[in-house]
Amino acid sequence: MSPASGSSPELWQLVDYQLQVTSGLPSATVKLARGDKKVAVSQSGSGVIDALYGAIMEAVGEPIELIDYRINSLSRGKGSLGKVTTQIRCNEQLFSGKAIEQDVMHASALALINAVNKMLLK
Fold first, then answer.
1. Cα angle at 8 between 6 and 14, to 5 degrees?
2. Reduced to 3 states, what is the DSSP secondary structure of residue 46?
3. How far is Cα 52 from Cα 40, in angstroms, rounded to an integer?
4. Helix or strand run (H / E) with residue 89
5. Which of 30, 61, 111, 116 meets the CB 3.0–4.6 Å disulfide criterion with 84?
6. Residue 42 CB: number of other CB atoms within 10 A?
């Protein structure tokens, strides 16, 4: 529980992540924190986003299904921003999250974590 409110659940935060992009076996390692709990998980996948999302979902430990993943460019050029939007389903309810960053992999991780946190606040 959050000491400030007394009734809000602790939310997940992205502490760190590492991606290994190869043609044969992309993998991701994530470190997440929720209050005093810290979790580190590594996953491989069919692509780097699949590996990243698999690691986050395993770390969270909830029966989450990814329904939608979208990425859009909000500007042009070297410093352009990417907007990632995700939608997940857990226990027959839908939750969405989004994030805007120059690093679209970071935005991808944050968007999923934002959707998970909305689920926790429900």
1. 125
2. coil
3. 12
4. strand 82-90
5. 111
6. 15
